[in-house]
């Protein structure tokens, strides 16, 4: 049993993608007041195709996060929302191949309600999914990165798939339009939060695109919440090749101007062999940080966190 003082804490999760999904799967049994804010910079795969075809913010990560919490009350709903039609996620924009059913439902609900956030609320109501799910920004955004050698690459998909000279290493990330606004509901949630968690997730294409939004940056400065940064288990070759924990911290400092987190959680189990085909390497702990929790790894798929282990680390 979880103490009610823990259970009733307001927790806000910043990021998106499989990292946030794994986080939610673990904490949904311990917290009742969960807010999830997802980057709207995704433009690859099926989400990018829907974004282009229907002029809608990318729905995929939001749907996956809702399914993760929905599995608490109805596992079949989670399976339904995350069901992916057979075929290539990078198929022609007008093809059904590779799309998640939940994303298509969200597109339909946007058309019915006329508003993306109302569509999210309708999907939650329809499938009885608790929690609050918010786009991090008002409207769609794009990201660009600048390498250490000054090369600029625009577009999440180009960065995610390594369609640039990634041997240069990434220096900074930026959002377009430059005057993009944070979701006002998210800012309110950040000020009310007892716990704020950023990561795990792709550092430059998922986590930082949320953290560098000016209003979010300001809210993190002002917040008195316990602020936790979860370092990835492994390094993605196109983004964080050979990064150690200190490199993640420095990247946040460089892009935000400071490191707002009071706790850092990192994995220290590097024993499971990572399949060579993925070309991923472990993120090593290389300096004393405020919180280091040992074995956080999913031994069945060692690229990611084990949801249960990560949740217990957060509770500690």
How would you describe this structure in keywords?
316 residues; alpha/beta; Rossmann fold; six-stranded parallel beta sheet; three-stranded antiparallel beta sheet; 38% helix; 15% strand; globular
Task: Give a verbal description of the structure.
This protein is of the alpha/beta class and 316 residues long. It has a single domain (4-139, 183-315), classed as Rossmann fold. It contains 13 helices and eleven strands. A six-stranded parallel beta sheet has the order 3-2-1-7-8-10, with helices on both faces. Helix 2 (17-27) packs parallel to helix 4, helix 2 (17-27) crosses helix 13 (307-315) and helix 4 packs antiparallel against helix 5 (75-81). The radius of gyration is 18 Å and the shape is globular.
Gyration radius over CA: 18 Å
Major β-sheet strand ordering = 3-2-1-7-8-10
| CATH topology label | Rossmann fold
How would you sum up the major sheet?
6 strands, parallel
Domain module count: 1
Number of strands: 11
The CATH class assignment is Alpha Beta
Number of helical regions: 13
Q: Could you report the average pLDDT, rounded to the nearest whole number?
A: 93
What's the N-to-C terminus distance?
14 Å
What structural class results from the helix and strand content?
A: alpha/beta
